[in-house]
Specification:
Blueprint (H helix, E strand, L loop, with lengths): L4 H22 L6 H9 L3 H25 L7 H26 L3 H20 L5
Amino acid sequence: MKAGIGIFLWKLSVALYLIANGILGVQKAAAGDFMIIFSRMFRGDAIGTFTVIAGVIALIAGIAILLEMFDVQVSFLSTLILIIAIIWIVYVVIEIIVWLKEGFSLLSLQRLAVHLMVLASLMIASRKFG
């Protein structure tokens, strides 16, 4: 491991975040970020379908990040992270639109900041944008 402890902890936190949300997505858990995101984007059966697909992608990406932390190269990691980052970009745009329609609140600002941090972390984790 060549990176400092801060980079190690950051990569570990991104990997664990993706793994946890991946498992919650596969379980279609209401508290999982993918269920929340897709319930804002879609209605009906599409929510569960997209949640499971995104959950599987996130789970694989989280495991791939963990593997790369220990010098096991995973060629498709950037593609997986890019897919998740696109989902997050769409979600952030939807949140901004809702925020503009419903009005400003500190809670919505906090949620927006958290999702922007997730998006930034995903992009940094990707070799294409990081």
